[in-house]
Structure formats: structure tokens, C-alpha cells
Amino acid sequence: MFDGVHRGHQVLIERAVELAERRDVPSVVVTFDPHPAEVVRPGSHPAQLTTLRRKAELVEELGVDVFCVLPFTAETSKMPGDEFVHEILVERLHVAAVVVGENFRFGHRAQGDVDLLTQLGNRFGFVAEGAKLLTSATNGEITFSSTYIRACVDAGDVVAAQAALGRPHRLEGIVVRGDGRGHELGFPTANLSTPRYTAVPADGVYACRFILLAGSGQRSLRAAVSVGTNPTFSGRERRVEAFVLDVDEDFYGQRVGLDFVARLRDMERFDSVDGLITQMHADVDNARRLLGD
């Protein structure tokens, strides 16, 4: 699925690009939509680290010629491994070489593995490579995977997530109107509406890069971002609210990205509004220090 296009994925993609250039054929990254889990076990869709749009951008940055999104249906889930390879890889994509992770599974009930893919490659005339999974240089027991990164994000450990992704974890969405409380407190916020299944970090306050995504020249601003329910005001709805530093602009309706650089603190309930405001000033100072110019 290449969710996150993390450092492990990048190794596979770079190898595929290398093989494609050597054979003078296009390099292609293939993914499915919707996520197979949603079809096989409805309601079990994992949180998404990247939108399809963001995934396509990251893949293109790695030099890939074609980003191919195939529909995943109930019929797809029931295809035996050999049928999957013949109909999709051979007949539809005309593959010359296939690069996958050593834990790659395919076909009905994930019965196919790299050994079967290699055998089918010999039968149908393509080369199959199973690459070793990438592990952390500081902790060999940690394998860089989408599952691991989702766990980091869910725990609010955005530094560990960045180490595995090779860049900060990003939320993308549209700025929508909130209840205006931030403006009343002297900290007007841009409230982000994110797509369904987005992997949102644990409740807390973070230092982020606020990226304006419209147009060819993306602007990067600094922000202190609150994720949570605003417990001081007995809020119930979980929100992502960004106070953009040193800028007084109206961002409503714009598509933006939030790159999570560091976690500043846990979400807290304050006994008074004055106590909250004092802490918000400290959060802004810490965000400014961590994000630099």
C-alpha cells in the first residue's frame, strides 16, 4: 500500500527505479484504493499516514514515472495468487521486474509470498526481488513499517515517526471555521478538517510547520498546534487547531499541511482561563525556539 512512503518503502522504490532505468522501461509504483482491510474486514481500515495525493507527490519525488492506483474489490480479494500475478502484473501492467519487501503477501487470504512470486516470475518471464526490511540504526529490533509509524503517531511520538518516515508526519486538510474561542483568548487558530481515517497524533500540543499547499510555490510558516477536546472548556469534539506564529491572515477554505516537528506537552485542563493563556504563551515561545526561522 506504500502508506507513508517511509524509509523502508523508499529503499524498494529506489531499487525499482534503478532496475527500470537499466532495462529502459518505465518505473511504476502500484497501490490499491480502498485499503484491502476495508474490503476484507469492513470497519478495520487502518489510520492513513498519507493521502493518495500526498503519496503520489512523494513517489514522484523519488523519480518514479507512473503512480498506479488500482481499485481493490471483493473480487480482487478472492483472486488466487497465480491469477493475481497473471491478470494484474503480467496482462495489465506488463512487468519486467517486481521489487517487494521480504514479508510481501498476495492473493486470496494472503497465501502468496516472495517464493511464489519468484516462481511465477520464472513462469511468466519477469524478475522478482524480495528486499530485506529496513531497521533502525539505533535499535535493530525496530523495523520501519507503516504499522510501527502509526503506533508512534498514535502515541504522540512524532520524533520517532519522523525518523522512520525520513521527514515529519504530515496532516493535510481544509481550514474550517471553529467557535472563535482562540480569537477571544488572543490566539486565533486555523482549524483543520482532515479526511476520514487520517492518522492524527495523540492529544497534546505540538510545534509544527504550517504549509500552504495551493499553487506551485508552497509557503511554510511556523505554528503551535493543539490536538484534543479543549478540556478547560469541557469540549467533546476532538479538534486540530493551529496558531500560526507572527502572521495575521485568513486561511479559511485553504488546503494546508501540518508537519509535526516536536511534541511540546500533554493536553491539560486548567483551573482558570488566565492559567491557560499563560501556558499558551509558553507554548508559542517553545514552538518558536524549536522551529527556528
TrEMBL record:
GO molecular function terms listed in the Swiss-Prot or TrEMBL record: ATP binding; FMN adenylyltransferase activity; riboflavin kinase activity
SUPFAM superfamilies according to UniProt: Nucleotidylyl transferase (SSF52374), Riboflavin kinase-like (SSF82114)
Domain Riboflavin kinase stretches: 164-292
Keywords annotated in UniProt: ATP-binding, FAD, Flavoprotein, FMN, Kinase, Multifunctional enzyme, Nucleotide-binding, Nucleotidyltransferase, Transferase
Catalytic activity, EC: 2.7.1.26, 2.7.7.2
Enzymatic class: transferase
Biological or metabolic pathway of the protein: Cofactor biosynthesis; FAD biosynthesis; FAD from FMN: step 1/1; Cofactor biosynthesis; FMN biosynthesis; FMN from riboflavin (ATP route): step 1/1
One Pfam family it belongs to: FAD_syn
CDD domains: FAD_synthetase_N (cd02064)
SMART domains in alphabetical order: Flavokinase
Catalyzed chemical reaction(s): riboflavin + ATP = FMN + ADP + H(+); FMN + ATP + H(+) = FAD + diphosphate
UniProt superkingdom: Bacteria
GO biological process: FAD biosynthetic process; FMN biosynthetic process; riboflavin biosynthetic process
PANTHER family registered for this protein in UniProt: RIBOFLAVIN KINASE, RIBOFLAVIN KINASE/FMN ADENYLYLTRANSFERASE
Family note: Belongs to the ribF family.
Role noted for this protein: Catalyzes the phosphorylation of riboflavin to FMN followed by the adenylation of FMN to FAD.
Protein name from the UniProt record: Riboflavin biosynthesis protein
Organism in which the protein naturally occurs: Actinocrispum wychmicini
